[in-house]
Design goal:
With about 850 residues, this protein is of the alpha/beta class. It has 31 helices and 20 strands.
């Protein structure tokens, strides 16, 4: 690190014109390396590879054809990304194979035919999108914080195969910041108070927080720097454009000591972090010192990483507001950020996230947006319309008033789990946006806050990089996707994905998609009821049945992943129903003091405990759902020889981000994960405390003591976050065997001939006391209520309104003896 320091001083004596620029590399060599990694080295020579020119107007192109001389498939493209896209197209549409996320390639299905198919008619694709962008500024913390080179190399291959060519390159940037501020005159103590811990760097970089979970170990900075150099070199071999972090004005407090007369603005408090870790300092871009600080940073950044692709991301007002509404001030602020880039790199392009225009919509009127953007020439700026699939800004701002923009799918926040997304929107809206009269759209992008979930959404979004027409028949595309993913197509697979497409994958993300199981336990918790548990459970049963009967290969990694993920969703949905039943029963007991209701609550609490065990066991059977991997990777990310206390601090970072997210439950459970180990050791213990506190209030005949409960819960969470404890990093148990067992428990096909229920209602426990009229449950079919009743040993029945509005229920009534309908209600009772 001392060597880098002295090099930095020498560098500042030179000029930007002397900075080295790395070569782009050999596209054929790049694709051959990729094929060898994805398939194996022996496959490399079974294909031909040719470099062809881009279109006359500079758009990328790929071809899949037959090399008649060598009698083998040939992939053609104008760069490495285009060649990789051709390879992926061939795998998907000629071999029915799939490459997706999954630890140790468990997301791949690569059962290629013994004789490779030769295209009878060549396929030529011209990318309609000049840019295909990837990553959110948060992704590097929520998903990539602990990655090593092997994981990064795999992701770069995935990027290339999905046509992505504009890549956020934020790893390792702290080396440039550290030496920039050191050269300017800040001390290590001042920088230790500034840099956040490695799990929270994304928000420190954006000026939201400072110092939390730090100090940042300098050995970690060193490791990340060399990792980024390797990433940068590899992406360039494919012809990808790297987006480097720009200087947006957020600075350490120590700069006030050096520039006491400069104009600094305190940011508003972010995430309830308070003044100790938030309210960062912004050196106003219009201040006279801004340019000098920026130039120091840009020169070091470009030097350390061996060149630049001339695109820089800067977001000065991410989730905060400017200090003035004056239109000229807004224009000059953005112009100053742009001019600082240009002063070091004359070819600079300013890339900006459009999130601020959505997040602070009350501030950013169209007049202010237009003024702010006018500070930068149109040709030198690109806007990421960060969540176009949910709240497009381009359509409200006349295509960002002439600025080129990229239509992006955000989809996920914080890495929370849930089966959801809108495939129809993804397959149609990017095409519409590009064809609108006057549109300035120049590309599409994937901008999730976290990755490695809902792979179908990203498979289709990858295709939108090269598709020029809408995906009109979405179900047909989904069937092809399922066949590629599992290596086969059966009626059960088709039925499963029909249910998923028509349910979970026709909705956009909602804050309430996060399951109750991973949320801070309390009363009156709302949850999203749009995704029918019975439909998801039925899809689960179809896939499990095929795997059990060997209709679908039970060893295929993607099938195992989907079975675990869908089963996870079924259990957490059912958990929400049990929560509703339990809290309704508590309210009933406190008003009526019915001892039978209390007995039912005790029995239901036992079922709840079993549910945690079931979920943790199911998740633990698959390598992609293990807490141990996250924590182990965090510890391994430290530089060899790092002190044990510094490594322990990295583990604290890993634990805190996915739980309390801050010192005082600041944005608690935002990055919650349903992972084996986390379910049993953290979430289950929180809910156990909640139930025990309720039980104690009943036993003492007192109201629920929320203050005492919250204090105990905080202590539990804090203690867990500060533990140093290893968790399994390898799966245990047989996924199919476990799933089949749990499916029988959480999903019932009602036997109409041998009905298990009769019309005898125990008057001691009116059904509405347990089920609250069934108004707030996930369940929306009779079968689901039978499952819930089976889970509760004290359940004697339930009621359901609106019977006559559901044809299935009417037909159910006619087929099962012993069912009575009284005043529009259907009554079920256990034998």
């Amino acid at each position: 690190m001392k060597f880098l320091y002295f090099v930095s001083i020498a560098l500042l004596l030179g000029t930007a014109a002397s900075l080295p620029v790395a070569p782009k590399g050999d596209p054929v060599k790049a694709i051959q390396g990729l094929v060898g990694r994805i398939l194996s080295q022996e496959w490399v020579d079974k294909f031909s590879y040719e470099v062809i020119p881009a279109t006359s107007d500079g758009f990328d192109v790929f071809e899949v054809d037959t090399d008649n001389k060598a009698n083998r498939p040939v992939f053609r493209g104008n760069n490495g990304v285009a060649l990789a896209s051709a390879f992926n197209y061939y795998l998907k549409y000629y071999c029915y194979c799939s490459v997706s996320w999954g630890l140790n390639s468990t997301g791949d299905q690569l059962k290629l035919p013994s004789t490779l198919p030769l295209p009878s008619k060549g396929k030529r694709v011209i990318f309609p999108n000049r840019y295909r962008y990837y990553q959110n500024v948060c992704t590097v913390s929520y998903s990539m914080a602990w990655w090593d080179w092997n994981r990064w190399e795999r992701e770069i291959d995935w990027m290339a195969m999905n046509g992505l060519n504009l890549i956020l390159s934020f790893t390792g940037q702290e080396v440039a910041w550290y030496f920039s501020y050191t050269l300017i005159g800040l001390t290590d103590e001042e920088l230790d108070q500034y840099f956040s811990g490695p799990a929270f760097l994304a928000w420190q970089r954006m000026g939201n927080i400072r110092g939390w979970a730090g100090p940042l170990d300098k050995g970690w900075i060193y490791v990340q720097y060399y990792l980024q150099k390797t990433i940068f070199e590899q992406t360039r071999t494919f012809g990808m454009i790297n987006v480097f972090p720009g200087f947006s004005g957020h600075v350490p407090k120590g700069l006030l000591r050096l520039y006491p007369d400069s104009n600094f603005t305190r940011a508003t408090q972010w995430g309830h972090f308070g003044t100790e870790y938030s309210e960062d300092y912004l050196l106003e871009p219009t201040d006279s010192q801004f340019l000098g600080v920026a130039q120091t940073y840009y020169k070091l950044l470009i030097f350390y990483f061996g060149g630049t692709d001339h695109v820089y991301n800067a977001d000065t007002y991410n989730e905060m507001q400017p200090s003035s509404t004056d239109l000229n001030f807004l224009k000059e602020s953005n112009a100053a950020i742009y001019n600082a880039m240009k002063s070091v790199d004359p070819n600079a392009t300013f890339l900006m996230q459009g999130w601020l225009f959505r997040n602070e919509a009350g501030f950013w009127t169209n007049e202010r947006i237009k003024a702010y953007l006018s500070g930068v020439p149109n040709d030198d700026m690109i806007i990421l319309d960060l969540s176009s699939e949910q709240v497009p800004i381009w359509s409200k701002t006349e295509s960002f008033f002439g600025k080129p923009f990229i239509w992006c799918m955000l989809h996920n926040y914080g890495g929370i789990r849930g089966i959801y997304g809108n495939l129809t929107t993804i397959g149609n809206d990017p095409i519409d946006a590009r064809l609108v009269n006057g549109s300035t759209m120049v590309g599409v992008g994937m901008t999730p806050e976290a990755i490695e979930h809902n792979p179908i959404m990203y498979d289709l979004m990858g295709e939108m990089s090269w598709r020029s027409e809408k995906v009109e028949a979405v179900m047909s595309w989904v069937e092809d996707y399922a066949r590629r993913r599992y290596g086969t197509m059966t009626n059960n697979i088709r039925n499963a994905w029909t249910l998923l497409l028509n349910g979970a994958y026709q909705f956009h993300w909602s804050w309430q998609i996060k399951s109750l199981l991973v949320r801070h336990p309390e009363f009156n918790m709302a949850f999203d009821k749009r995704f029918a548990t019975f439909n998801i459970a039925t899809a689960w049963s179809y896939l499990v049945t095929d795997a059990v009967n060997d209709n679908a290969d039970p060893k295929v990694g993607p099938l195992l992943y989907d079975i675990v993920d869908i089963g996870r969703q079924v259990i957490v949905n059912t958990f929400a129903d049990v929560y509703t039943i339990y809290t309704n029963a508590y309210s009933s007991y406190m008003s009526k003091k019915n001892s039978n209701v209390y007995t039912a609550m005790k029995d239901l609490a036992k079922s709840w405990t079993t549910m945690f065990e079931d979920l943790d066991g199911l998740l633990g059977s698959n390598a992609n759902f293990l807490l141990g991997t996250w924590i182990n990777d965090a510890r391994k990310s430290a530089q060899p020889g790092t002190s044990s206390s510094a490594v322990d601090r990295i583990e604290f970072n890993a634990r805190n981000q996915i739980t309390m997210w801050g010192p005082n439950e600041n944005i608690e459970d935002y990055a919650a994960k349903e992972w084996s180990g986390l379910v049993s050791s953290y979430y289950a213990q929180r809910w156990k405390l909640f139930i025990n506190t309720i039980d104690e209030s009943i036993m003492n005949d007192k109201a629920f003591n929320k203050t005492a409960y919250e204090s105990m819960l905080f202590t539990l969470e804090k203690n867990w976050g500060e533990k140093i404890e290893a968790y399994p990093t390898t799966p245990t148990g047989d996924t199919i065997e476990l799933s089949n067992k749990l499916m029988q428990k959480y999903y019932h096909n009602i036997d109409y001939v041998n009905a298990k229920y009769m019309s005898k209602m125990d008057a001691d426990i009116p059904s509405d006391d347990l089920y609250g009229g069934a108004v707030n449950l996930w369940a929306n079919t009779t079968e689901q209520y039978v499952v819930l009743c089976e889970m509760n040993p004290s359940c004697v029945g339930f009621s359901f309104s609106y019977v006559n509005k559901n044809p299935k229920m009417v037909s159910f009534k006619t087929k099962v003896s012993g069912i009575t309908v009284e005043k529009g209600r259907m009554l079920y009772v256990k034998h």
